[in-house]
Design goal:
about 90 residues; mainly beta; three-stranded antiparallel β-sheet; elongated
Length: about 90
Amino acid sequence: MNGLLVLDKPAGMTSHDVVEIVRRPRAERSVGHLGTLDPMATGVLPLLLGKYTRLAQFFGTAEKTYEGRSALDLRPTPSTRRDGAGEVCPC
């Protein structure tokens, strides 16, 4: 099968995990992603299938834009906090 598949990657999975899930049902060997998302990140993950994987070389030079949000809390903090992974960290 040849094509482009655009997925919304959930948190907790690596980009490689997503490729393996797509590859497994049809034993498709040629599946590749057009960028890596951290396991904690969510977002669009484009995959190329079959002969379309040869097109990946043309996407490497494309301009990319990243968007993020942050908040600054100026209240006094306790001695521990919870980070994005839910682990208790010393402050």
